[in-house]
């Protein structure tokens, strides 16, 4: 898998900070010891990707076209959304036909959506807010769930499960993320909402574990060119 910055995925699982752990290596110790190898592996994909696009479209065909364009441009970790009609078959098809991609489902707001997504083959789940009832579903399937939050308390709880989603990130901005990092230094935070092609590198420099970009990327006139420009910005950051 090739990340926007040109990094390639390694075999094996991932350690507490998302770095690769060779197959057969002992699991990590410390706070992340409770995370399973499967969850750590997906965390590693998110870390290496750095940019995790949200592919939201009017229908499944349009979302599929966008995803194929992103994949051809070198982005192989992204999320479809439960607001896209036909998302279940979309996820199922990608899980079956594109093993090189790490595909999750966003806007997971209920156990029914979560169960359907996991059965279809979603590698991870993303919610815009806290979803306590979905956690056991993700745990039973041995999948990562990225829960949204704004306060330090919400983000700390979500980060303890692997990765937290700061949403909407633009409300507090970069200064707020910096403040969060000072009190949650080990937390993996995905910044979402208001992250653009122009400022993605700034969010990462401020300490975001990864960032999610939506329509600013998927709505670009030339997506491959936008990805290449983004790759250059990340390399220079």
| General form | globular
Number of helices: 10
Low-confidence stretches: 5-29
The number of E-state strands comes to 10
Strand order of the largest sheet: 6-7-8-9-10
Main sheet makeup: 5 strands, parallel
User: Which secondary-structure class do the elements indicate?
Assistant: alpha/beta
The proportion of residues forming helix, as a percent range, comes to 40-55%
Computed Rg: 16 Å
In terms of DSSP E residues, the strand content is 5-15%
- Average pLDDT for all residues: 89
Q: Helix-strand pattern, N to C?
A: EEHEHEHEHEHEHEHEHEHH
Determine the N-to-C terminus distance. 21 Å
Describe the structure in your own words:
The two termini are 21 Å apart. This protein has helices spanning 37-49, 60-72, 87-97, 111-120, 135-141, 152-159, 169-183, 200-205, 215-218, 223-236, and strands at residues 13-14, 20-21, 54-55, 77-81, 102-106, 124-126, 144-149, 164-166, 189-192, 210-212. The strands form three sheets. Strands 6-7-8-9-10 form a five-stranded parallel sheet, sandwiched between helices. 44% of the residues are buried. With 237 residues, the protein is an alpha/beta fold. The chain contains ten helices and ten strands. The radius of gyration is 16 Å and the shape is globular.
């Amino acid at each position: 898998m090739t990340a926007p910055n040109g990094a390639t995925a390694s075999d094996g699982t991932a350690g507490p900070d998302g770095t690769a752990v060779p197959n057969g290596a002992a699991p990590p110790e410390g706070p992340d010891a409770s995370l399973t190898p499967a969850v750590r592996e997906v965390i590693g994909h998110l870390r290496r990707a750095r940019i995790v696009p949200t592919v939201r479209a009017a229908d499944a065909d349009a979302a599929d076209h966008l995803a194929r364009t992103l994949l051809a441009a070198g982005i192989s970790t992204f999320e479809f959304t439960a607001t896209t009609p036909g998302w279940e078959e979309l996820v199922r098809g990608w899980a079956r036909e594109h093993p090189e991609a790490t595909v999750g489902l966003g806007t997971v707001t209920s156990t029914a959506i979560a169960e359907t997504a996991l059965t279809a083959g979603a590698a991870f789940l993303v919610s815009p807010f806290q979803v306590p009832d979905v956690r056991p579903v993700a745990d039973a399937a041995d999948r990562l769930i990225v829960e949204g939050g704004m306060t330090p308390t919400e983000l700390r709880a979500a980060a303890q499960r692997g990765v937290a989603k700061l949403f909407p990130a633009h409300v507090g901005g970069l200064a707020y993320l910096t403040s969060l990092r000072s009190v949650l230094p080990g937390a993996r935070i995905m910044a979402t909402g208001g992250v653009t092609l122009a400022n993605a590198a700034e969010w990462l420099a401020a300490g975001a574990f990864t960032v999610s970009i939506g329509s600013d990327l998927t709505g670009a006139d030339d997506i491959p060119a936008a990805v290449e420009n983004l790759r250059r910005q990340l390399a220079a950051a």
